[in-house]
Amino acid sequence: MSKQLQDALKNVVGKRILVIGDVMLDRYVWGSVERISPEAPIPICLVKRETNVPGGAGNTAANITAMKGKCTLLSVVGDDEARRMLNSELESRGIDVSAMVAEQERPTTRKTRVMGGQQQLLRLDFEDSSPIKEESRQKIIGYIKKNVSLFDCVVISDYAKGVIDRELAEAVVQEAARARKPLLVDPKPKHAKYFKGATLITPNHKEASEIAGIREEKEADHIIIGNHLVKLMGSDILITRGEKGMTLFQLKENAISVNEFMTTAREVYDVSGAGDTVVAALALSMAAGNPLELGIMLANIAAGIKVGKLGTAAVTYHEVEDKIMNIDEKIKSREQITLVAKQVRAEGKKIVTTNGSFDLLHAGHLKYLNEAKAQGDVLIVGLNSDDSVRRWKKTVGYEDWKNRPIIPEQYRARMLAALKSVDYVTIFDETEPFEFLNSVHPDVHVNGSEYGEKCIEADLIKSMGGRIHIVEKEAGLSTSEVIKKIKESK
Prior knowledge:
It is a single chain. The strands form four sheets. Strands 4-1-9-10-11-12-13-14 form an eight-stranded mixed sheet, sandwiched between helices. Strands 15-18-17-16-19-20 form a six-stranded parallel sheet, sandwiched between helices. It has a four-stranded mixed sheet with strand order 3-2-7-8. Strand 12 and strand 13 (about 245-250) form a beta hairpin. The chain folds into two domains: about 1-325, UDP-N-acetylmuramoyl-L-alanine:D-glutamate ligase; about 330-490, Rossmann fold, CATH 3.40.50. The radius of gyration is 25 Å and the shape is globular. The protein has helices spanning about 1-10, 55-65, 80-90, 135-145, 165-180, 205-210, 220-235, 275-290, 290-305, 315-325, 335-345, 365-375, 385-395, 410-415, 435-440, 460-465, 480-490; strands spanning about 15-20, 25-35, 45-55, 70-75, 75-80, 100-105, 110-115, 120-125, 155, 185, 200, 235-240, 245-250, 255-260, 330, 350-355, 380-385, 425-430, 445-450, 465-470. Helix 1 runs antiparallel to helix 10 (about 315-325), helix 2 (about 55-65) crosses helix 8 and helix 4 packs parallel to helix 5. It is α/β, with parallel strands linked by helices. It has 17 helices and 20 strands. It starts with a helix and ends with a helix.
């Protein structure tokens, strides 16, 4: 099955997907909470950073391009600063926004989440969910009629924010059928009847119950609901059921077949956006002509990866590939590595940490990591993200900081994970490794002799009751030296 899944994943590369629906800007304000306000009984969040990511249909599009597909996004936004920020985020992910429609009086939908550590404290919504203008609707329909044949699959991502209505939905169903393109719909219950005849409809268990008008009271009720929906909608139905997996209902030769797919998720930190990830993986697989069952398996794997991430986040092709090949078991998110460290400590094992960019892995790195591993039982490597590397290099005065790292973070992580000496790898985005170290609480932290006992980590490690171990640097072996020799050899 692994070989079939690998082949199915390879087939999705370069497939063109048209995503139609409600796009939004998801803004995250990250900070820490250490005290209560004297003004009111509310927490004070000390803000450390802010990030923007595409949400709604934009998250579906971001997942498609992250999994090596090509995506055009068709939606309605405002003519405001939020639109410009959103377009910047979309374009940076390789998403075509040239067909997006802007309305002067309409605000771009945006959601701001205030995060205290890993806990969401507050969400602020800015939106106008009224129907879009007739002129905007006709522009979208006109684009679809003219261009639908250029795509391998069409997706409707309905968040009930005003873009999707009966006229638009029925036009999409009709044009996709005319062009013989698969149509995948992520529905909102109040619009479900507009999507009759779509290739595949993917409600979650609550949405499925509402669309069918049948209350889910016991375990087997989802079978009754799914059977009803297949007949009602004239489409294949995939009900996503969270930790219980997914259930596919299909009408075959006057009989309804039911297939259950169990979840692959081991740890769930945040389910937001997981539905978008499922839709993206399914759309790419359908576009590639893979059997639907294989597409659902890929989508299940992708969703399992997503729920291990905090916030709205895309799942990459390489993450899915690694999961299929079981390479990713060593690569952990911040939340995952925190739990791993607790488990390791409970087993009475000694935790060793080190951190760095590990760009252009060389023999000096191997010696360093082998000696680090020898200091304890479990070696956890904190790997600077690409942005973190650039910020750090700039801070310490590297002239070529804009050109580093040479190797992108996902490949650096995979190379480290392939080493026998390394037990776990976790990527951190901060300039300094302090939050990574706080999440792990090592017994020993290893650093190179160029920094020595006075390294920036020393005070924190000692405050935790740990010790610093210094590895002597191998003369002439560094990434900078390797780059220099390559240049000199030209």
